[in-house]
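Dear support,

We are seeing what looks like truncated structure output for some complexes. This example has two components. We would appreciate it if you could run it in full and send us the complete token output so we can diff it against ours.
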Amino acid sequence: MNGLIAILQTVLFVSLAPLLAGWLKLCKCCLQNRKPPSLLQPYRDLLKLTRKHPVVAEQASWIFTKAPYIIFSATLMAASVVPLIAVDLPTSAGADMIVMVGFFAFARFFLALAGLDIGTAFGGMGSSREMTISSLAEPAMLMAVFTLAMAASTTNLSVAIAHVLNEGLVLRPSFVFALFALILVGVAETGRVPVDNPATHLELTMIHEAMILEYSGRHLALIEWASQLKLMLYGVLIANIFLPWGIAETFTAEALLYGLLAIIAKLAVLAIALAISETLLAKMRLFRVQEYLSFAYLLGLLGLLSHIILEVSH
Amino acid sequence: MILILAYAAVLLSFASGLLALLMNQRDNLAALSRYGFKKYPNTIKDGQELVFCSLDEQRFPVLLKQAVFVLLGMSGIFAVLAGLSVLISTDIITDRISLGLPWLPWHVRFDGLSGFFFLIIGIAVSTVSLYGPAYVNAYEEDRHPFAALGLFTGLFVAGMLLVLLADDAFMFMIAWELMSVASYFLVAFQHEHPANRRAAFLYLLMAEVGALAIILGFGVLAGFSDGFTFDALRNAQLSTTWGSIAFGLALLGFGMKAGIFPVHVWLPEAHPAAPSHISALMSGVMLKVAVYGLVRFCFDLLGDVQWQWGVVLLILGTVSALGGILYAMMQPNLKRLLAYSSVENIGIIVMVLGLAMIFLDNGHPQLTALAFLAALLHAFNHALFKNLLFLGAGILHHQTHELNIDMMGGLIKKMPQTSLLFLVGCMSISSLPLFNGFVSEWLAFQAALQADVLDNGVLRSLIPVAAAALALTAALAAACFVKVFGLIFLGQSRSHHSEKAHEVTDKSMLAGPALLAALCFLFGIFPGLVIHLINSVSAQLLEQTMPNDSALGWLWLAPVSAEQASYSPPLVLLAALLAGSATFWYLRRSPETKTMRRAATWDCGFGGVTSRMQYSSGAFTMPLRRIFAKAWLIDERIDKTMQGAMDQDVAAVHYHLHIHDHSWPRLYQPIERGVNSLAKRVGRIQTGNIRTYLGYSFVTLLLMLWVVSQ
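Here is the complete output from our reference environment:
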């Protein structure tokens, strides 16, 4: 039964991810006085791509053609670990939050290799920048996650969220730091403004898009879907760790439905906030990103230290 | 029985070294056998033929090389068996060998800790001996005699094994010196290059200074006990000050061998100089012997561990880990890069050992066991994947005659099997889930996250900072090895040699790395296999095992408790395979789009994507070079050659990039200057005049007489 709900949750995760991307685009278009595409446009795009004949560069090796499957599976694994509508599911025990960060690293490793596989300047540029940014973002993310882990004295995401839930609304300084660190990292890792602009193909600024420039057809669909999943995953992490209320603790249909509605509402609000920030902010120069990310790293570390110094009772 | 296995391993490695000496003795052997058969003519005819056949001029060197490596491989297998059996039986076996001085027999002790490192050495030596025969064939006999290589390889392995068996300071130091000196000759093997001679001398110098520090460390312990056996040293009652002095000396000595920052400088020089299978042994195994020495000295002999020592190890380990990977990233030479990455990994091991010390002195034996486990597991894992990568580098060098990764590229299509094995190594060392490097790093994080049990506020905040540095290290390592794999194997060939490269023809050269890659994956999925072995080590050494390693069965890894943290690699693998194959099947179900269309790479419409447009090593790491600019001494220059009227047209542009180690100008050059000026001052009393020297002797004699008469 628990296993079934876990699978259901993962399926929900995968199927709702394009919707979130569509909603985000819709919000952005409204804010920028443009006519928005339909909410379901990302689904149509994915479907269209899977039906197309993929074109692969002559240079490409098996890394290039298998990487999309690896990237998608690794992101899916990460998604299955994160409690979406219910806590206390068996998948969280199989891999904890450190492993989840490891899954991201796995996906990124292959994405960067795929970028280098073709042997163009664009691919190398994208890989180099992606690895640079992620090598600063990943530790910042771990710091934020460790704050939660130390506060709840567990690295199991599900147990940690249940811990926050049971504790009620307590204003912990460490959590405030960790929240901001995670938001900053999330923006960087999912390639949003001000770190990267998913809508641009301008040579000088591309990061994520530069690596996947050569992809087409179902390969592109998988990579796009994986990045939508990643965006949703960060959203769910932020929503469920810091505002876990509404998530189902018992496995009744009612509680699960309530949990689903709660997370949809939370994500919708988060997406609006992201759309506003993307509209207000301009993209940073590449060499400003380090300052941004080391700020996130520092916030994460401050969170951890403030937990240790202020909140541990001896 | 178990000890016989261990002795057999040592003797076999000696034998393989001695056998190699026969390389130049073919004529003598032939004469000897003719003489023997004449004297005893009624021996079997087949036997005679076999002997003469194998003494044939063509076949003799090949057969001898194989025999040498077979002996070495058997030594490795015996070492594995000995290590496994002592770990499983959890016995402590002691013995005495009456070698050396008559009243000083060698004491031998074979316990779990030695057994575990026997296992590491055994695996590495076996794989190297699978790989060796084909690799050494590339050397020309008259320039690089196999006799020297084989002899010192055998002595080197024997020395390492004896270090682990030693139970008194004498035997330990003799074995240690055997290991150091034998490996010096191996580093100096290709001595026609001045750089190699310089590297070998630097290595010898640091090894000997380190050995002096270790001897002094033993001396401090022996000063408080009645003998040099480890049993006596264990019972030494030291004050905290003397204990700390002994610890400091041991740290310096073993740290020099292990390559802890800032005494790591010999590593990046010596590893590229040695033949690849030797650098694999040096980096994968010899550094672990130094870790063994540190563990034996601190946890076993000193016993009374202070948390301040733990802090020292934690800080040094963190600095080594970060420094190692930052320097590794900037190296275009593959073997230098791997050497710096060894500094990083040793740093991680030392950092986690420091955690273990902190927990031990603060009275948290279970967490000590956890941190200790993480450290030893990382030592084991690093031996596997670093061996794999060095052997892979050897194959690349063998096939492309290049070690500069900027000169490779596109090898995945030419060397598919090598590339797959190398990829496994890169993924393990980048600590990606499902591979072995991840497990030990995960355990290290789990140990660091328990820091809030400590009472000391400074420690509680220091450990998370170290954990943060570890996280940064892991992420940088991933970036570094993406670069390594991407530039070597992907893209287009960057040089003529790599264009012409092809897969190794002698498949035995791939067997060793294949075995290591399989082990990397196996222990990534079932880490419990090794963890149980390490638990018996910590049960012996710390009298404490992990809290409940098997709480959830062999499928799970739950170091503290199931609620706190758990990781199940087999389940993750299963789920990932299911997800991957489901999407693979679903997306390729329609026959129309199942095939892929191959087309030219997008060149922005300008035409002609050439290999020079690809990112190079320097370009790939440029953003990081800019971000962490202070970490290196960067010497970057762009020279333009001008031509034409008014010298306005650029004819050629040359880009120079050299990255130097900070420790040379900051640490070593001042020491060098100091030693030189001291030598000059001492030189003043060396007049070269015999009368003055007689005067010195006379004054010394008077002084001595005065001292004696007091």
